[in-house]
Amino acid sequence: MKLTITKQFQTFLKSIGIEFENILKKAKIPNKLWQEEISLNTLEYYNMLIELDKEVPESAVRMLSDIDNISMFMPPFFAALSSLNGKEAI
Asked: Buried b / exposed e across 60-81, counting CB within 10 Å, b at 16+?
């Protein structure tokens, strides 16, 4: 699976106090953020989501769900906000 981690997404995470490099380190994924895309296998992707879930505070999740607070366009978030439910968003 190829995952695109844009600079915009990394900047957003930094704005809520999260360094994506630390997420990758904790998930035991080589830091290749200098590339356009990171290739992950299923286990690496799952581990990344687990670590991201541990780091993102509930208040940030609530902030993300408030469309009035969106200050930049990120297609993955737009798609998630357009989903019928949380499972479809993921």
From this structure: beeebeeeeeeeeeeeebeeee
